[in-house]
Design brief:
The chain has 25 helices and 27 strands. It has 738 residues and is an alpha/beta fold. Helix 5 crosses helix 10 (289-300).
């Protein structure tokens, strides 16, 4: 055994080391990533919602209004390609630095090959416009396709790029300078793709450039990161967001250095997957596609004073063209907006470059350091500071201060991880306080050991937490409870045949099994009365489903009885049968007795009624009976038979009693379905019985089991079959004995 002084020294070390290793391991396995994503999204929406994209970035949106307004002009979606040619004609009146289509024209529209056509007129108009107007960039996709390359899937992977694509569009070979120099590319490590989707050949040949539109969401389907460059067969192609920027800025070197991609002097932070964190904006400079077309029509008609949009607004702009209409399936779940048009992702990245406002991704070594510091500080505060205010206040202040610091740094475009360090702090606090409880709670543990044989675990926890209250005499309250009585049938006769030691052994084994069931369903053992058990649910832990827990426990007790009987048979003893009665109602609960001897028990009229219900099981030949007060409070539909409408001895008001059949989650679904079906037949039979419709009741009884319960109804119906209808009949069966 370690000395108290040694424990005092090593306890904080052990706690801190355990928490640090656990949280660090979970962090390394990316367990906290989904929660970090939630916090990241909140910070993004809080800090960026009111910011606008760079003034040189414009977006032309195909919105729902455009789809409606263009119906007479271009027909239903998808529009013929001449519409985009008209758009380029309008934009050519200005001098945009780049026109980027966030729409992939991978296939031609229908044309008549029989007449020798290779392209329809609308597609050709778009090709001519792209060839005529400078700075038009088409969308392409480079993807990693996991499908096998076989004929059934019609997929060919790692196929060569069409002739000229490498020389014209890859950043290694693209000619940007008059002196024939090419961009120096070094250190890029983007994973290779094995498939591509390019514009149809005529359009590809006419394009000024291409931009990759492929953006992958994080595992939680939120778009937070994007690649600037995409790899296909060791050739790198720019994303749509920066393709025109590269042509305009003409960098001499594009290089990956550590966690940065450099474009000459521009340093762009990237994560370990070579992705940038997209620094979103809440406001975008957008124009409706239909407004552009309407303005072009006015220009062509000479109505310059009626222009909705002046072409000059696009002078020297980077123009992105995409869709926001809900039916076009390009709305993305982003930190700033759960339904952000995909084109705005590219516009945001372009603005990040132009504004030189890149997010610095989280740094793993810093996160590990914070995990260590927060854990150590919290453990030392909890274990060694005596004042409760400081013991709790210092860790709380650290947590609040770190959250404020993280918020401030996010505004400065530096991202710190929140969840892992704060989880380390919280777990250290919990474990440290648990250690204090273990050190200082010996009295409670002794009390718990003493009371565990009487109370269910749920009640025991409350008793331990409030054990001072439970030792006070004359404390009581009226509670709504479900009360259970259980008794072994004919045990007196059985015990007379056995030795005293055998009787005790049988009772101990039986009570142990039944107690396990009651405790499993969070009941309280009130007392053992000879071979009987009295238990209740609903106090001292108040629960709304105490009737169901009591009923489930009763069904479970019957199942456990089979094991008890197998044990008895193995000892060459006779099996036993039991009866269980349950009633729900108000009872007085408290510590009742003298100051020297108290029992935590219940008393009242409803307690007596529950005992009477247990006695009825013998009369009806059932194992379990519950009252309608219990049945009405069942949360889940436990199938039950109506047993009778009975007036027990000493009670004037009749009460309906039920026989539970089976738990609704029984693994045999056929048995459960059959039980529900029989329940409906039983209910119909009992309705006929109450109406003195004996023949109809007997017809329903032919479908019900030949058990004592239904045999009782059969005898009653046959006895009354030829008797005249009674005017004062109420169907109540009056018991004359207990």
């Amino acid at each position: 055994m370690l000395s108290q002084k040694t424990q005092y020294i090593f306890r904080p070390i052990i706690i801190s080391l355990t928490v640090i290793l656990l949280i660090s391991g979970l962090y390394a396995k990316a367990v906290f990533s989904p929660f970090e994503g939630i916090m990241y999204d909140w910070l993004m929406s809080e800090t960026r919602a009111d910011l606008s994209t760079h003034e040189d970035v414009a977006i032309i949106i195909i919105d729902d209004a455009s789809l409606s307004a263009m119906d007479n002009y271009a027909g239903r979606w998808p529009w013929p390609r001449f519409v985009y040619a008209d758009l380029l004609e309008f934009l050519a009146m200005a001098n945009p630095k780049g026109i980027m289509f966030d729409t992939t024209f991978t296939e031609k529209h229908t044309f008549n090959a029989d007449d020798g056509e290779t392209i329809n007129q609308a597609d050709q108009e778009l090709v001519n416009a792209v060839a005529s107007y400078p700075s038009v960039y088409q969308a392409v996709r480079f993807v990693f396709d996991s499908l096998a390359a076989d004929e059934s899937q019609n997929v060919t992977l790692n196929k060569a790029l069409p002739t000229g694509v490498e020389q014209r569009f890859s950043i290694q070979h693209r000619q940007l300078y008059e002196d024939s120099l090419k961009i120096k590319v070094d250190g890029l490590q983007a994973p290779a793709n094995n498939n591509y989707y390019l514009p149809f050949p005529e359009l590809l040949n006419a394009a000024q450039g291409i931009g990759v539109v492929e953006v992958q969401a994080d595992k939680d389907s939120v778009y937070r990161r994007a690649r600037l460059f995409h790899n296909y067969q060791d050739l790198f192609f720019p994303g749509l967001s920066i393709t025109a920027l590269i042509d305009q800025q003409q960098p001499k070197v594009i290089e990956r250095i550590g966690n940065f991609i450099t474009l000459d002097e521009t340093r762009i932070p990237v994560d370990n997957e070579e992705k940038v964190l997209i620094n979103y904006y809440g406001k975008f400079n957008t124009y409706s596609f239909s407004g552009i077309i309407a303005s072009l029509a006015n220009i062509q008609a000479g109505n310059l004073e009626s222009l909705l949009i002046d072409p000059a607004e696009f002078d020297n702009k980077y123009v992105f063209i995409g869709a926001s209409a809900s039916g076009l399936n390009d709305l993305k779940n982003t930190p700033i907006d759960a339904r952000l048009p995909g084109v705005m992702i590219h516009a945001s990245i372009a603005s990040n470059v132009l504004n030189d406002e890149f997010l610095t991704p989280p740094n793993a070594p810093i996160s590990y350091t914070l995990i260590i510091l927060f854990s150590l500080t919290t453990v030392l505060c909890v274990l060694f500071i005596k004042q409760a205010v400081l013991k709790n206040g210092i860790p709380l202040a650290i947590a609040i201060g770190y959250m404020a610091f993280t918020y401030f740094m996010f505004e400065q475009n530096v991202v710190f991880e929140l969840v892992a360090p704060l989880t380390a702090l919280a777990l250290s606090w919990v474990v440290s306080f648990s250690a204090l409880v273990l050190m200082e709670g010996r009295e409670k543990r002794k009390f718990k050991k003493m009371m565990s044989q009487y109370l269910s675990p749920a009640v025991l926890r409350t008793a331990v937490d409030n054990h001072e209250e439970f030792v006070k005499a004359e404390v009581g309250s009226q509670e709504n409870l479900s009360i259970l009585f259980s008794d072994i049938r004919n045990f007196t006769n059985l015990s007379e045949k056995l030795q005293a030691e055998q009787v005790v052994e049988i009772l101990n084994y039986y009570f142990s099994s039944m107690t396990d069931s009651i405790f499993h369903y969070e009941g309280t053992i009130d007392k053992f009365i000879g071979d009987a058990i009295m238990a209740f649910w609903g106090a001292p832990i108040k629960t709304a489903d105490h009737a169901e827990k009591a009923t489930r426990s009763a069904i479970d007790m019957v199942r456990r009885l089979e094991e008890v009987n197998q044990w008895l048979i193995a000892k060459n003893l006779e099996p036993i049968a039991i009866g269980i009665g349950i009633h729900t109602g108000d009872a007085i609960l408290g510590n009742i007795g003298s100051e020297n001897k108290l029992d935590y028990t219940i008393i009242g009229d409803n307690v007596n009624l529950a005992s009477r219900i247990e006695g009825l099981t013998k009369h009806y030949g059932t194992t379990i009976l519950i009252t309608e007060d219990t049945y009405s409070q069942l949360v889940n539909p436990i199938p039950c038979f109506v047993a009778d409408l009975v007036a027990v001895k000493g009670k004037k008001k009749p009460i309906k009693v039920f026989q539970p059949l089976i738990l609704p989650e029984d693994p045999d679904e056929d048995i459960v379905a059959k039980a529900h079906a029989l329940q409906k037949i039983n209910e119909t039979m009992f309705e006929h019985y109450l109406k003195q419709e004996w023949q109809q009741a007997l017809a329903e009884l032919t479908q019900l089991p030949k058990d004592p319960l239904h045999n009782n109804f059969r005898q009653r119906c046959r006895a009354n079959l030829n008797k005249p209808t009674l005017e004062n009949w109420d169907g109540v069966h009056t018991m004359t004995s207990k």
